[in-house]
Design brief:
The protein has about 500 residues and is α/β, with parallel strands linked by helices. Helix content is about 30%, strand content about 20%. Keywords: FAD, Flavoprotein, Monooxygenase, NADP, Oxidoreductase.
Length: about 500
């Protein structure tokens, strides 16, 4: 590789080189680093993080009530027990868990904060990636033998806000949950939360009580189910079993519940719908209009189920602290929102909990041997690599279960791949697409944020190993126990051993 040059064209210091480059210091990136240290302790690595702190989602989002909507026994790492009292917990506790894990495994010294990766370029000649990073307005280069992209799948700099007619006329405050001001006080204000997804279901009850009124305005309903904030089984197991064994048993139990619930909803949607409806009716005021406000047009788990811990949303409705309105916005007015039905909602503060914007691989430009990679023409191998892109893996969690269940499997398998290559003197692995495999959308999920971005994502295939599974236990067998040298992967040695290179240069 050519030496770096200064602004005057003179040779500069060689770029830092590591064995593995991890992009992102959020839940997935910190977990990946821990897996590397646990299973491949001799490998050098660096984590490039665009922001100035670790934590990713759990540091970025600061809105009232921010919490997990997955249980912490599966959202937590496989290798480090969750020790909190609540299974469904607040964002600050999750951030503490990530930071404590990083400290326990001495990860933070490997993080390069303020390094926004803008480009990744692969060279067969060197069998390595060159990462171009924007750091305080200048470009910095880092090279690596392999890359694991753990940047998540949505944009950090902005959330999704649809066209809101007349918004410029509104005299109050408008805020998106992704950019919650630290000094925003909703006490005594009339609040309208626009949206019906997980963020709205969290925010609306959390703002009740202090606000003069809170209205959750939704175009259409979402399935919302109550879940105990504490896991009674976990509490019992902790009293009788060693910590790690109790954690593993609870994690397994909850993973089974995730898969079983999803399968029930997909195979018996009418039964699932009735069960959800019965559960909701028992927690809402008598005569509440379930058909209008809690009965979606789609089947359960065609979109993600929303969880309300300890039925907080239903309790807020019963206490009169939260009102749900199902209608469409006609226009904003100086004093609130006029609905298509003619009703007016007075508001001082409008929260646009209208979703995320997906961004594949953090918006990083990929190049292989000088040719730009159009990710929309690639096919996902096991939901963790891209066809035609060497030594590159990524983490995208499950849509129907906890993110970390998949993140742990990907990191483990990535380490297995690296160990396999090292043991055989190989330095390159690339998934090679089978032309007979049909193309399908990357995510088979009807959520709006997914549908809006499908045209910018890779494809999945019509059969394994190109088909994305949504079943943790099937993935568990494949990622942890199946052979690494899959026929769909092409292994090679591109870079000459150092001894050969030295001899040829004499």
């Amino acid at each position: 590789m050519a030496a770096a040059t200064t602004e005057h064209g003179t040779p500069g210091p060689a770029p830092e080189h590591v064995d593995v480059l991890v992009v992102g210091a959020g839940l997935s990136g910190i977990g990946a680093a821990c897996h590397l240290q646990r299973t491949l302790p001799g490998r050098s690595y660096a984590i490039l993080e665009a922001r100035d702190t670790m934590g990713g989602t759990w540091d970025l989002f600061r809105y009232p009530g921010i919490r997990s909507d997955s249980d912490m026994y599966t959202l937590g790492y496989r290798f480090r027990p969750w020790r909190g009292e609540k299974s469904i917990t607040d964002g600050g506790s999750i951030l503490d868990y990530i930071r404590e894990t990083a400290a326990e495994y001495d990860v933070e010294r490997h993080i390069r904060y303020g390094h926004r990766v803008t480009g990744l370029s692969w060279s067969d000649d060197d069998a390595r990636w060159t990462a171009t990073c924007s750091v305080a307005g200048r470009n910095v280069v880092v090279t690596a033998s392999a890359v694991l992209c753990a940047s998540g799948y949505y944009r950090y700099d902005r959330g999704h806000t649809p066209d809101l007619p007349g918004i410029e006329r509104f005299g109050g405050t408008v805020v998106h949950p992704q950019h919650w001001p630290a000094d925003l006080d909703h006490t005594g204000r009339r609040v309208v939360v626009v949206g019906s997804g997980a963020t709205a279901v969290t925010l609306a009850p959390a703002m009740g009580g202090a606000a003069a009124s809170v209205t959750m305005l939704q175009r259409s309903p979402t399935y919302i189910v109550p879940l105990a904030a504490r896991d009674a089984v976990a509490d019992r197991l902790r009293r009788f079993l060693p910590e790690r064994l109790a954690y593993r048993a609870t994690r397994l139990k909850n993973a089974v519940v995730h898969v079983a619930t999803y399968q029930l909803c997909q195979r018996f949607p009418n039964a699932a719908r009735r069960l959800i409806r019965t559960t909701q009716r028992a927690r809402l005021p008598e005569g509440y209009d379930l058909d209008t406000h809690f009965t979606p047009r789609y089947d359960p788990w065609d979109q993600r189920l929303c969880v309300t811990p300890d039925a907080e949303l239903f309790r807020s409705i019963r206490r009169g602290e939260l009102d749900i309105v199902t209608d469409r916005i006609a226009t904003f007015t100086p004093d609130g929102i006029e609905l298509e039905s003619g009703r007016e909602l007075p508001a001082d503060l409008v929260v646009t909990a209208t979703g995320l914007e997906l961004l594949a691989f953090g918006g990083i430009e990929l190049t292989v041997n000088g040719e730009p990679v159009d990710v929309t023409t690639t096919m996902a191998y096991r939901g963790m690599m891209l066809s035609g892109v060497p030594n590159f893996a990524y983490v995208i969690g499950y849509t129907n279960a906890s993110w970390t269940l998949k993140a742990d499997l990907v990191s483990e398998h990535f380490c297995r791949l690296l160990a396999h290559m090292a043991a055989r003197g190989l330095d390159t692995v690339v998934p090679v697409r089978d032309p007979s495999v049909g193309e399908e959308p990357f995510l088979d999920f009807d959520a709006g944020y997914v549908l809006r971005a499908l045209d910018s994502l890779p494809k999945q295939g019509s059969r394994a190993p190109w088909r994305l599974r949504t079943n943790y236990f099937r993935d568990l067998l494949t990622f942890r126990f199946a052979r690494v040298d899959d026929p769909a992967l092409q292994f090679s040695r591109r870079r000459r051993p150092a001894s050969v290179a030295t001899a040829s240069g004499r």
